[in-house]
Design a protein that fits this description.
With 216 residues, the protein is of the alpha/beta class. It is built from eight helices and seven strands; from the N terminus they run H-E-H-E-H-H-E-H-E-H-H-E-E-E-H. It binds 3'-phosphate-adenosine-5'-phosphate sulfate and adenosine-5'-diphosphate. The site of 3'-phosphate-adenosine-5'-phosphate sulfate has 21 residues, from helix 2, helix 3 and helix 4. Pathway: Sulfur metabolism; hydrogen sulfide biosynthesis; sulfite from sulfate: step 2/3.
Length: 216
């Protein structure tokens, strides 16, 4: 929408920033169904890397929806916009040399591809991590009782109105009544029904070390 705007480059380029800050930024994009373990792994990974004195920050779907994205719901367009904003925010964090861990369901492949593309265009590393477990396991975990609510029809989608009349209010809980498009070629695929939290942190940090992002 903005016109008459001009991009203003900084006086320090990407490589010089990395040399000066002593750290290369990377976005670690966790995607998966609710209760798959995104937040748990993100917290443990953040703690592990902070204790190694790395500059790290975590962006978590639930938390961001209390602030920056409090105007968004869970219909498809809102989820698209949610992920678009977080793609931009994570790009900025990573550009600042931060190890940026995002934990969003991010159910649509096209949205995650857009996040990757934004980073690639800015020459910033982006790692997609599929946090995966069978739906039956997730429903068993159900740490927030959301699957139970969804099965009971207590989670409603965006109301569709015709004038003042409610036409329908579709349920839209991911994995039950809203889609999740699993990653086809993620950099990392973790099956959390087979891997402990510590094991997941190790898998990610090994990948970071092998690819020259951080020392293990
Ligand atoms: N309808 C519906 N569908 C999915 N999730 C729901 C819904 N309503 C509320 N919640 C809670 O919101 C968290 C997901 O937010 P995200 O921003 O990650 O979602 S998305 O990427 O835009 O799809 C999600 O967090 P996680 O369980 O950590 O994934 C839920 O706590
Ligand atoms: N191997 C595992 N990895 C991650 N979480 C696990 C694992 N095993 C059990 N859990 C539990 O599953 C739940 C995952 O919830 P959460 O991390 O909030 O997932 P998400 O952010 O994907 O919704 C937590 O209660 C966590 O303790």
């Amino acid at each position: 929408m903005s016109t008459n705007i001009t991009f203003h480059p900084g006086s320090v380029d990407g490589e010089e920033r990395i040399a000066l800050t002593g750290q290369r930024g990377v976005t670690i994009w966790l995607t998966g169904l609710s209760a798959s373990g995104k937040s748990t792994i993100a917290c443990a990974l953040e703690q592990h890397l902070l204790h190694l004195h790395r500059f790290v920050y975590r962006l978590d779907g639930d938390n961001i929806r209390f602030g920056l994205n409090k105007d968004l719901g869970f219909d498809e367009k809102s989820r698209n916009e949610n992920i678009r904003r977080i793609s931009e925010v994570s790009k900025l964090f990573t550009d600042s040399s931060c190890i940026t861990i995002t934990a969003f369901i991010s159910p649509y492949r096209a949205d995650r591809d857009l996040a990757r593309e934004l980073h690639q265009k800015a020459l910033l590393p982006f790692l997609e991590v599929f946090v995966d477990a069978p739906l039956a396991v997730l429903e068993e975990r159900d740490p927030k009782g959301l699957y139970k609510k969804a099965r009971a029809g207590e989670i409603k989608g965006k109301p569709i109105l015709q004038g003042q009349t409610l036409i329908k209010c579709p349920a839209d809980f991911t994995g039950i009544s809203a889609p999740y498009e699993a990653p086809e070629t993620p950099e990392i695929h973790i099956k959390t029904d087979e891997t402990s939290v510590e094991g997941s942190v190790r898998i990610i940090t090994d990948y970071l070390a092998k690819n020259g992002y951080v020392a293990s």
